[in-house]
Amino acid sequence: MSLTSLLHRLARPGLARPGLVTAALAAGALALSTTTATAAPALTQISADPYTNSTSQHAAEVEPDTFSYGSTIVSAFQVGRFTDGGSSNVGFATSTDNGTTWTKGFLPGITTQAGGTFQRVSDPSVAYDAKHNTWLISTIPITSSVAVPEVFTSRSTDGGLAWSNPVVTATGSSLDKNWIV
Asked: Is residue 56 part of a domain?
């Protein structure tokens, strides 16, 4: 039944119920507003999983963290997620012009996929140090499916466009779900 037919039927004597007419009118207004809406903005893919190891799921980039300061946006995320935890590496995507254009890449020196010694990495967290004009991404390295008792931090001193090998910034026996601010 069309919206017009429904409204005519509801307007007949004895059939009209104010709440139902109001709901039908609201649905009509919604239908009209959705038919005259402009096209959705174009989507921009800012990263893609380049890894091919058979031990993790590919075309998957998950568990993102994002921080912005001024016109710069930095996002970090797991790339090539393992079903029992961690990922093949941590990717980053940086925009220095409020999201108009993006630079993407992967953190160096953590996993064997990127010149490091660990099988996996997890829990990327992004922060900005305004005093030193430095972007930071902290992660937790993993051997097999067991978290190493360390938190790594990678630094970028060029606006989030290139990243250093990580340094150990925390140690402990039960580190999990790191956060950096």
From this structure: no
DSSP state, residue 118: B
Please indicate, yes or no, whether residues 22 and 87 belong to a single structural domain of this protein: no
12 and 93 housed in the same domain = no
Q: What is the pLDDT of residues 93-139, one digit of tens each?
A: 999 999 999 999 999 999 999 999 999 999 999 999 999 999 999 99
Q: Is 63 helix (H, G, I), strand (E, B) or coil?
A: strand
**Which residues, in sequence order, are CB contacts of 167 under 8 Å at separation 6+?**
152, 153, 155
Which residue matches tokens 């921080």?
Answer: 67
CA–CA distance from 143 to each of 92, 151, 173 (Å)? Answer: 22, 13, 14
Query: 100 Cβ partners below 8 Å, 6+ apart?
Result: none
Question: What are the tokens at 104?
Answer: 């993407």
Residues 160 and 122 in one domain: yes
In 3D, which of 92, 112, 109, 85 has the Cα closest to residue 168?
109
Q: C-alpha distances in angstroms, 10 versus 5, 14, 32, 144?
A: 9, 9, 19, 65
Range of the structural domain that residue 81 is part of:
61-171
**Rounded-to-integer distance, Cα 116 and Cα 154, Å:** 13
